[in-house]
Design goal:
The complex is a heterodimer of chains A (about 450) and B (about 280).
Chain A lengths: L4 E5 L8 E6 L4 H10 L5 E4 L15 E4 L6 E5 L4 E5 L4 H8 L4 E2 L11 H6 L7 H4 L6 E7 L5 E4 L5 H7 L8 E8 L1 E2 L4 E9 L2 H11 L5 E6 L11 E8 L7 H4 L12 E2 L11 H14 L3 E6 H5 L5 E2 L10 E9 H18 L6 E6 L13 E9 L3 H16 L3 E2 L9 H7 L3 H11 L8 H5 L7
Helix pairs in contact in A: 5-13, 10-11
Chain B lengths: L2 E2 L2 H17 L9 E4 L4 H12 L4 E5 L2 H15 L3 E5 L8 H10 L7 E4 L7 H6 L1 H29 L6 E5 L12 H21 L5 E7 L21 H14 L3 E4 L3 H10 L2 H4 L5
Parallel strand pairs in B: 2-3, 2-5, 3-4, 5-6, 6-7, 7-8
Antiparallel strand pairs in B: 1-4
Helix pairs in contact in B: 2-3, 2-8, 6-7
The chains are: A alpha+beta (about 450), B alpha/beta (about 280).
């Protein structure tokens, strides 16, 4: 029998902690063995545990850790296509291939996620409005399904399995390997334009105006600003800098960072009072004041992964943890929807650190993929017990009212009803899941909460 | 024996690359190293360490799919030539031709051999399952003698450069027999004594023989038996760094992590009349 470890685990938000049976395959063949012989009713794959809620936990059942299945398998320097196992992290891909002139085609705000996790969440990045989600660049993947078969799928081969698996949160099987089209770059730097927006309308206007031409765009938004300043933000727009356009002192080694930024770490959970309203308000004010309208050369780490420099930053929210709330509204409703969310937030008294606002492009084909064309807002909310639940209920109602939806990789609390109402392709997803996993071997705590799988 | 080698073509590329490197007076890369049991977690981490130091590698293991994955991984991460050879530890009669192939993998032959394969087995089962018992001894001890004798003879005859080494992963479990895993322990103990003798024999030839005695390491072997975040469980990377350092220093016997030397000194010092009553 495959051996497991009983351990309490949670998502990145440390919001709910659950006892799970952890399996850790070291060879690809072990995964099938675990499924056949692990003795658990259900399983879900887990990468680096960076989804915020309960996507990669499975209370009282099996969790298959991908961390040791992290081999790079093939790379074609002519096409930039990389084949690797699902446990490879985005950080490893950057470390290995940026020096050779390749970057990720799509990256979320942390590089400490695995390829498997990124595909299962069909992640988007600051380039969503022009490039779409990661699945657009996934040339193919292999999946161990619920019947123990290893199937290959891609845009062309068994597309139903592919579009169910990307964004499918690990519920169609265990992603074993993937082929990803990397992006050719000639430097490790991004040229960034900073623009301050005095309020939400101004920010949306800036997104609308000039956005489509620029590869990367995102705004940091102060959720505590009120009244005329509601939605005050700093927009950042940029693109990879060609090596030729770098300042002279960076030209010698355009693909490696001049100095490795020192990594800091938060060594323990902060006490609950540390992150009070005043602290957050002061921080947000300073952030807005610090940024002028200017153009800067920024290294990829600082631009894409500002929080990765602080290990365990989730401990800032203390032992009770936090939830991340990411909502998306269609373009014609986003002004109203976002305004309502921000008003609820700034009157709730639950302080969020800087939140992120981003415009999204057309929806991809993933049945449960998150983005469609509009605007998405992501924010952290510290766990304040009943007060948080109350706020989340109000936020969810606003999202429903304005035709929005929530991102599954961030979600901790959504109801099955809200989920079903906001993901119209759920039925299609379930059909394909039933084909790939007829005996319901794959489930997570989130999947049970959202009614994607039956509660046993 | 089936071999999975891409070295014929990569050799040629390596030769041209190397010629270019010599012309530009870059230091010549260190001699290739053979890693046996290359698909284990410790061996993988060790392959990364050695590749990082510039060693080209011959990786050998029984599971060819895994071996190919591990080899491709090292090749891609370190941009270095890696040969993959199928190796079945308990198919003793295949060892001579296997070792000959390993020597042929690169024009420079081999500068060292690192033996990483091992089998813990279920200690309770091994008492009654005679095949398992035999397999534990064969994998941990007999196979090591079989393949390392070939390496010893080769390095003794050709190791004139005086930098060759043989390194093998034994275990702290081989330091004293205990009821909980004495079959595994005695096979590792035998390996330790074999390496002692080999070190003695090869000293005049300038060949270093390095015995590694890991304690608990966070691998598939221990997963589910110990708390993975317990302070006495070391990561494979930590152990691999210690092994690479031991090879660089041409040490004799290295415990990893270091504190196992003290722990085992105490365990070894307990008199047998007392020890036999203990539940260890």
């Amino acid at each position: 029998m495959a051996r497991s470890v009983t351990q309490d685990i949670s998502g990145w938000g440390n919001f709910t902690v659950e006892s799970c049976q952890l399996f850790r395959p070291e060879k690809l063949g072990d995964v099938r063995h675990i499924l056949a012989d692990g003795g658990q009713p259900t399983y879900v794959a887990r990468g680096l545990g960076r989804s915020y809620g309960d996507s990669a936990t499975n209370a009282g059942a099996g969790v298959i850790l991908g961390e040791r299945l992290d081999r790079l398998l093939a790379f074609d320097p002519l096409t930039g296509e990389l084949e690797c196992e699902a446990g490879v992290s985005l950080a490893e891909i950057i470390n290995g291939f940026l020096p050779r002139g390749f970057f990720l085609p799509v990256t979320p705000g942390t590089k400490f996620v695995t390829v498997g996790g990124a595909i299962a969440a069909d992640v988007h990045g600051k380039n969503h409005h022009v490039e779409g989600t990661l699945s657009k660049f996934v040339r193919g993947l292999t999946l161990l399904d619920g019947t123990g078969r290893i199937i290959r799928c891609s845009h062309d081969e068994d597309p139903d399995a592919f579009w169910a698996t990307v964004g499918g949160m690990g519920l169609t099987g265990v992603i074993l390997t993937a082929r990803i089209q990397l992006l050719r770059v000639s430097s490790a730097y991004v040229g960034v334009d900073y623009r301050r927006a005095a309020n939400l309308d101004h920010a949306l206007e800036l997104f609308g105006d000039e956005d489509q031409a620029v590869r990367y765009s995102v705004a940091w938004i102060d959720c505590l600003a009120k009244g005329a300043s509601l939605g005050r933000s700093v927009l950042m727009r940029g693109d990879h800098l060609p090596a030729a356009d770098l300042p002279d002192h960076l030209k010698a080694n355009p693909l490696t960072l001049a100095r490795r930024p020192r990594t800091k770490s938060i060594p323990f959970n902060f006490p609950g009072w540390a992150l009070n309203r005043l602290a957050v308000r002061t921080f947000n004010k300073l952030f807005y004041a610090k940024h002028k309208d200017e153009r800067k050369v920024v290294d990829y780490d600082a631009f894409f992964y500002p929080l990765d420099g602080i290990l365990h930053w989730n401990r800032m929210y203390g032992k009770r943890g936090f939830v991340q709330y990411q909502a998306l509204f269609p373009t014609d409703r986003s002004r109203q929807g976002l305004r309502e969310l921000l008003e609820l937030l700034s009157s709730s008294g639950i302080g969020s650190f800087l939140a992120v606002l981003k415009s999204t492009g057309a929806a991809g084909k993933g049945f449960l993929s998150y983005p469609f064309e509009g605007h998405t807002l992501a924010l952290d909310l510290p766990n304040r017990g009943a007060r948080l639940s109350e706020l989340l209920a109000q936020l969810d109602a606003a999202v429903l009212k304005h035709g929005g939806r929530l991102y599954l990789a961030k979600d901790s609390c959504m109801s099955a009803e809200t989920f079903a109402a906001t993901y119209p392709l759920l039925g299609r997803f379930k059909e394909v899941k039933n084909r790939l996993d007829p005996n319901h071997r794959f489930a997570s705590t989130q999947a049970r909460r959202l009614g994607i799988v039956e509660v046993a | 024996m089936s071999t999975t080698m891409e070295t014929r073509s990569t050799d040629e590329r390596a030769a041209t690359v190397l010629a270019g490197a010599v012309a530009s007076s870059t230091p010549v890369s260190p001699a290739p190293v053979l890693i046996l049991g290359a698909t284990s977690a410790i061996a993988r981490a060790l392959a990364h360490e050695m590749a990082h130091q510039g060693h080209r590698l011959v990786l050998a293991a029984r599971d060819e799919a895994e071996l190919n994955a591990v080899s491709a991984d090292v090749r891609l991460r370190f941009n270095i030539d890696v040969a993959a050879l199928r190796f079945d530890a308990t198919d003793f009669s295949s060892h001579p031709s296997f070792f000959a192939d390993a020597l042929q993998a690169f024009p420079e032959g081999l500068g060292g051999v690192i033996l990483c394969h091992g089998l813990l087995g279920d200690a309770m089962q091994a008492r009654s399952n005679r095949d398992l018992c035999r397999q534990i001894i064969d994998v941990n001890f007999t196979s090591a003698v079989s393949v390392l004798e070939l390496a010893a003879a080769h390095f003794e005859a050709h190791g004139a450069a005086g930098r060759a080494f043989i390194c093998a992963i034994s275990s702290v479990a081989g330091d004293r027999g205990r009821q909980s895993n004495y079959i595994y322990g005695s096979s590792k103990g035998a390996l330790t004594i074999y390496l002692q003798g080999l070190r003695n024999r090869l000293f005049p030839a300038g060949v270093a023989v390095i015995t590694i005695k890991p304690g608990f390491v966070d691998t598939a072997m221990t997963w589910g038996l110990l708390k993975p975040n317990s302070p006495i469980v070391a990561s494979p990377q930590r152990v691999a760094r210690d092994i690479a350092r031991a090879i660089r220093r041409r040490s004799n016997v290295v415990y990893t992590p270091f504190f196992w030397r003290a722990i085992m000194r105490i365990i070894k010092s307990i008199p047998e009349p007392i020890f036999k009553r203990l539940k260890l």
